[in-house]
Automatic annotation (TrEMBL):
Pfam families according to UniProt: Lipocalin_5 (PF13924)
Classification via InterPro entries: Lipocalin-like
Residue ranges of domain Lipocalin-like in the record: 15-132
Domain of life the protein comes from: Eukaryota
Name of the protein: Lipocalin-like domain-containing protein
Organism of derivation: Glonium stellatum
Amino acid sequence: MAVAKPVSIDPDQIIGAWKSLTYDFYKDFKHLTQPVGPGPLERILFLHTDYRNCMCTRPQCIQPIKVAEWGHASDEDIVRVARGMTTYSGSYMFYDEKGQPMLRTDVDIALGPNWIGSVQIRTMKFCEENDRKYLTSKPM
């Protein structure tokens, strides 16, 4: 099996929808946890308009709720679904810091209200292997 080789990040290569293989939290480059467990259901969307959206949930949270409309769901169903989900979106930009590709997102909407108005910084690595592309990021 060939090892994925890092390549420079060309923003045009990033545009589109990405499926996550893992979702991990780091602090000071030290792995802390997988907040939604293994095998997350996550999509990250990068638009040409320099706007991105990220939605992630635990697979066990996607069981249907008892009513057709989310607004009429029981508190129990809302807690079960919402506690296992993270979502945020905002404008983004790629930049270079001491040779390390970085991603900055200015969050304008999020499920967790404390993220609204925050700036999320991630180190980035873009790799290609055969016909697959991989994008990895770690919070700063």
